[in-house]
Amino acid sequence: MKSSMKHLSLFSFLLASLVITSCVRPEPSRYGDGMRRSVPENEGVYSHGITDFLEEVDNHGLELHSFMFLRHNKVIAEGWWYPYKPALTHIIHSVSKTFTSTAIGFAVKEKLLTVDSKVISFFPGELPQAVSPGLEKLAIKHLLTMTAGHEAAPEFYMSDANWVRSFLETPVANEPGTVFQYSSYASYMLSAILQKASGATVMEYLAPRLFEPLGITGIKGEEGAQGISAGGWGMRIKTADMAKLGQLYLQKGKWNKKRLLPEAWIKEATSVHIYQADNPTFEQEMYDEWAQGYAYQIWRCTHNAFRADGANGQFIIVMPDQDAVIAITARVQDAQKVLSLIWEHIFPSIMNRPLKENREANDMLVSKLASLQIPDPFRTDEYLPIAKETVRSFAMEPNERQIKNVSFSFNAEGDCLFSFTDDKGTSSFLYGQDGWRYGETERLSPYFLNPRRNPAGMLPLTVAGYGSWTAANQLELRLLFLNDTSAETCSCSFREGEVEISLANSEQPREAPPVLKGRLQ
């Protein structure tokens, strides 16, 4: 058996041991998150419903990275798709917005502002020459509910010096509060207002009020222009900590019997304030999870649930009627499908009473959770075209990536250390022979190709590399940036002392990848 498969088997055994142990009785997490564990049936949930959900995720080719299910404030199922793992922080994209609105809730509690406070009152030095009636009426509640009145969502980049001024200069075409227009820069403005009112960034402000009481550590968040927390995107956090925020909302603002946020705020923050469509169709009303109404940086769901929602399938789903929370990280295009599978399989498995022990069903769930892994990107033929313990270096022709040379070093395991030198220095990544190998890098991931994103303070990044010889002279290398949802693929063709390398990434899927050529040194 290959070493990569041994590695995966050991990983599965250890994870299974953890899950099996947690299924015996409620106990603190082995992951150090302070959360209690229990068996699904003990908390009134059929194990087979969770297993069916996980099976259907695989059947539909949905790339989930983590899943955590809480019932009655106990974790009853949790899993990470290898090579993702519990201790890693993961990008949550627009789930960041819910953390920002939570910060606004604390500021309201502390009487630093109200939801009716006018936006222009915080930025007297940033106003346009003529303040329109719409801008004059614009209040914090309109930012919270994505009803700022813009005809189209504004878009700013890190090269733009002053996002606050640019936002205030954007025409307010509709009466604030009347038209839903989703905008991450409305969330940025909430962050800017919070910073003006408190003197602290959202991240700094939440530290003693939310992160410390909930035991949330290691969190990172991007900054936008002017040193202001991005607000609408860019937070990296562990799955367990996402679930904790959901549990806080489920408990109406209380944590460990201590009130952190007023119950009235939680009710206001999770109630519908605007519907996304004026005249929704029957199908939208019944099934569309993006047409159920919008609260304070929170989406309403079908089944009287609500959720924090981020691109590519980042979710904190709160089900008050079922006393349940589900947290998910992923890289999926069809986020609606993920939610639909939850309602189809998990939702009907939740009962209002404890259930009889079902060891067979629970064992199946334990086994499924222990075996979760994202699909292998490639597979090697039986032979290895380049011998182990070999190094090959190539001088590259001039290219748009400014890469001067590359080298491939194969160790005794058949793993490949791929190194390249460009105008930023030398970078090296380890790719397991038909298996993932972990590493860290100071090099930016493709996530940061978006010009609004800011890498300051976000490095280093955890990576996992997977390599396979898919043909006699074809080496495929896949690099996952585990803290976000981006990946790079190097397709390397070797022939007669030459190499051609095609460089593709997940953030530019429609662009033809550049092809680099080099000769053996």
Total of helices: 13
Q: Note poorly predicted spans.
A: 1-28
Q: Report the structural category.
A: alpha+beta
Please tell me how large the radius of gyration is: 25 Å
Short structural summary:
This protein has three domains: 3-88 and 238-249 and 294-370, no CATH class; 94-227, Beta-lactamase (3-Layer(aba) Sandwich); 390-520, Beta Barrel (Lipocalin), CATH 2.40.128. The protein has 13 helices and 20 strands. The chain has helices at residues 3-22, 47-59, 96-109, 133-137, 140-144, 163-169, 184-198, 202-214, 239-250, 263-270, 282-287, 335-346, 359-370; strands at residues 64-71, 74-80, 90-91, 236-237, 254-255, 258-259, 299-300, 306-310, 314-319, 324-330, 390-396, 405-410, 416-422, 425-433, 437-441, 461-471, 474-481, 486-495, 498-505, 515-520.
Describe the structure.
- There is one protein chain.
- The protein has 521 residues and is of the alpha+beta class.
- The chain folds into 3 domains: 3-88 and 238-249 and 294-370, no CATH class; 94-227, Beta-lactamase (3-Layer(aba) Sandwich); 390-520, Calycin beta-barrel core domain (Lipocalin).
- Helix content is 27%, strand content 23%.
- It is built from 13 helices and 20 strands.
- It has helices at residues 3-22, 47-59, 96-109, 133-137, 140-144, 163-169, 184-198, 202-214, 239-250, 263-270, 282-287, 335-346, 359-370; strands at residues 64-71, 74-80, 90-91, 236-237, 254-255, 258-259, 299-300, 306-310, 314-319, 324-330, 390-396, 405-410, 416-422, 425-433, 437-441, 461-471, 474-481, 486-495, 498-505, 515-520.
- Strand 11 (390-396) and strand 12 (405-410) form a beta hairpin.
- Helix 3 packs parallel to helix 7 and helix 3 (96-109) packs across helix 8.
